[in-house]
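Obj: model holo form, ligand = flavin-adenine dinucleotide.
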Amino acid sequence: MSDELPTEEYEVVVVGGGPAGQTAALYSTRLGHRTALVDRGGGRGAMQEVHNLIGVREETSGNEFLGVGKEQLEEYGCALHRDVIASCSRTDDERFELCGNDATYRTEHVVLATGFNDVRPEPPLPRTGRGLHYCLHCDAHMFVDESVYVMGYSESAAHVAAIMLNFTDEVDLLTRGDDPAWSDETATMLDDHPIDVIHADVTGVQNGEDGWLKAMEFEDGTVREYRGGFAMYGAEYNNGLARELGCEINDDGTVAVDDHGGTAVDGVYAVGDLTPGHNQVPIALADGAKAGISIHFELRDFPRDPEAIDEAGPVRSEEVPGIPDELLEQAVDFHTYDD
Ligand SMILES: Cc1cc2nc3c(=O)[nH]c(=O)nc-3n(C[C@H](O)[C@H](O)[C@H](O)COP(=O)(O)OP(=O)(O)OC[C@H]3O[C@@H](n4cnc5c(N)ncnc54)[C@H](O)[C@@H]3O)c2cc1C
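Output (holo structure tokens):
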């Protein structure tokens, strides 16, 4: 079926248009490489409010932030495709072929920025971003001196409950009837801290007029007041393309990378939440930048190395600059500030 689709040729294709993918695409485009960003939309970057990003106001939503990113990418000449990459492979000429619904994308370098999905617990649940949260480093600050819950039955749920004591003295751990999967040592840790472990399932949610969580109702008839809390049910990594390409996958589902986002497969990079490390926008931005710069080192034409000079001769002035014509035009237009 993909034979009938148009084929698009690029030097770099970034899959995933969250903060990590957008930044990789920005660097790759501005450093002079024909670049496409293929994104299906959504993702963790589409959060309600962006925190921890210096210079960006708290009331900015993830979609606003990413929307400006898309405009910037377009202005610099990056091709934006709203598409899903369903499969990918290496071609005989050592390139990569990525199959989308609308086109086939052929490229020399691939950046995987596909992130992960938080596993959502069963309803009833508070509204996401208004009492139901997934990111401790982003949102713990909202709950200083408030009554909070942590939902889950894993080691990490127990540890997040204890960590929340750094912010407030009212922390409940809600297992919702699931058998705790934490170790004896963790059970002792919970006993040694002022955390109430509640096993009764949640049967209802009460919201205040501001839309924020006010309280939760439990199957034993109790009602407990909370301002908000965190669901800790793990992550589903979008690592299918990385697996298809032969990248090394860590036990937790992240893609193994070097300091610049390089994977075990030449020409394939992985960045952002898909890789190990803190899951934060500033870190995703840095990952994207490092991968974009590293790809530039691999792709740039000059200085031509001595072997290539032996083969092709010295660089002639008509061969420079190395930047493709369409990007050159856009760059020149961009710098014509006198409007
Ligand atoms: C509710 C919530 C609030 C948060 N708040 C903050 C905050 O305030 N501050 C902060 O620093 N961090 C916050 N985070 C964390 C932050 O959102 C992530 O760390 C960041 O978005 C990671 O960026 P990323 O580009 O790696 O992945 P994502 O932003 O998840 O982007 C991945 C993109 O890849 C796309 N994709 C996946 N597979 C394919 C495919 N096959 N083809 C095409 N596209 C594909 C997805 O649709 C998505 O658009 C929050 C997270 C959540 C869940």
